[in-house]
Amino acid sequence: MRRVLIAVAALALPLSLAGAPAVASATDVVKPARVVEKLNRPTALVAQGPDDICNFTDSRPSLSRGSSGAAVRQAQCYLNQAIGAGLDEDGDFGRLTQAATRTFQQCAGIVVDGRIGAQTWSFLSFWANAPGTPFC
User: How far is residue 72's CA from residue 52's CA, in Å, rounded to a whole number?
Assistant: First the structure.
């Protein structure tokens, strides 16, 4: 399929640049029924931003034991939603938040270091806002 699209694009581009009408376009490619069905199927959207399940902040700094503030409260809320951690959303990244972070990271199959960096934020926000939480 990819080769067909590349060939069509390679043919259409020189013709359109020369002022001649293009002979084929990407929409002329016949798609198998499975692909069409998948493309037409509605997808579930995950809330991000104003519809986020936790609304303490949209800041995503690196967090580790000893961190505090709204971003820690956001992470604690996400951990509660994603894995049912039962954390107080107090904004203090202590021993319990670190342990819950490690549990989440192990469950998610990402690097287990007890810190919340870019990868952990990404997984946390996705899992916390996904239907059917908690996962672990």
Answer: 15
The answer to whether the beta carbons of residues 97 and 120 sit under 8 Å apart is no
**Beta-carbon contacts of residue 49 (< 8 Å; ≥ 6 apart):** 58
Q: Which domain holds residue 24?
A: 2-40
* Token output for 81: 């939603």
Picking from 24, 97, 34, the residue whose alpha carbon sits closest to that of residue 66 is 97
**CATH code (residue 113):** 1.10.101.10
pLDDT in tens, 23-73: 554 554 454 444 444 444 444 444 444 578 899 999 999 999 999 999 999
Does the pTM surpass 0.90? The reply is no
For 5, 67, 92, the CA distances from 49, given in Å and listed in that order, are 35, 23, 23
**Residue holding tokens 């490619």?**
29
